[in-house]
């Protein structure tokens, strides 16, 4: 993604520029007496006709032609390598030089009319510097106005918004929360999906219950180091310019409203999925920047407007496409945040002119507040009116979280029992009693919890529920059979031993199936 802070891309004018009578020029440079007119530079170049180019023409011109550049008198000569073909460019026809890394471009405006665009690609910084010094620094009025606008734009933004403290504050809050999560043992690269819920992720069964605050807190929770790193880089790149254009508090309102609409869209689209991350709000910021550039494009320097308009379209399109192509990305939150950012951004945006900005300030803030309240009220209706089928799905998803700790406790107790001393019949009786009194009730409770939590017909979680029931039943049968074998040593026959082995094998298979099915409906980050 392009750097969004405004920067100047035009080269400095060559020293020694003099006035010129050419009708396009605002200034002109003629060859100085001490110029070395025999200098030759190896490069790749292209000369493009005016107007938009088709795909094949763009590909053709992008590669350029290998050749040489030389200066002689009033002309600049471009000569193809291994070819006698050459093109003489009059110095008086060269206007509007632009510089980007090893690439120099300028326009040709010959006296007979028409125009062409020349691109020179040189091999080193030193060659670029020398060529720029030898080229005339003539500018058309439009280009000169653009340079003035670029030169003053950064100062103009700084006067409107002196410091982008909201962007840095949001980044700091996200980093602090993630650091606290890591310190609490949630995980760094790969986090505990159930532990993240305790930190305020947008988990439908809780959010749609009595914990609507998760719609906000989920914006500051992330699923691992890579997740937060990518999001914070995007927020840093997009947020600073957007905050300067809108102002600190309006930018904060834009961010929070977009994040909120993203969270609501997420929980409405897939209410049983555990979702978190700042990308819904970041999409809203991108939408806010895009709508500002489109609405006030005439007040921005054309270069700034075109660059950021293209950057935002690319950012939105690429990330949405990536979300549709890969599992684990919450595109509902992205689309919801983008819609919220476009909506509230269009209302909060103000002209760059300070007087007009102040004149529209109260009205735009009032209108944005009213629209935001109405929008959230409309979205709140489906959040509070849930069908019976959806309610059953939510209860089952909530049960999965609750059973996780209970299952780990039952497994740990079973492992402790396996290491008990059982050399005498007394010790075997004690171990049998531990199984019957302490461990078997845990597996019975796990089985009963799933059995007593129904799912609607056709639910995608039906297969998961059946696998869980079979897994819990296998384990309680293993415990029951083992307890009987310990208390009645005469029952330690091959049939009982074979039965336990078969149950243990099936239990492992069902555990793997449960893990696989749960992963298919697990939490996607955003």
From TrEMBL:
The chain crosses the membrane at residues 163-186, 215-239, 251-270, 276-296, 364-383. InterPro entries: Peptidase_S54_rhomboid_dom, Rhomboid-like_sf, Rhomboid_protease_S54. Its main location: membrane. Keywords: Hydrolase, Membrane, Transmembrane, Transmembrane helix. GO terms for cellular component: membrane. It holds the Pfam family Rhomboid. Gene3D superfamilies: Rhomboid-like. It is a multi-pass membrane protein. It comes from the Bacteria. One of its GO terms (molecular function) is serine-type endopeptidase activity. It is found in: Membrane. Residues 210-350 form the Peptidase S54 rhomboid domain. Belongs to the peptidase S54 family. PANTHER family: PRESENILIN-ASSOCIATED RHOMBOID-LIKE PROTEIN, MITOCHONDRIAL, RHOMBOID PROTEASE. This is Peptidase S54 rhomboid domain-containing protein. It comes from Paraburkholderia fungorum. The lineage of its organism: Bacteria, Pseudomonadati, Pseudomonadota, Betaproteobacteria, Burkholderiales.
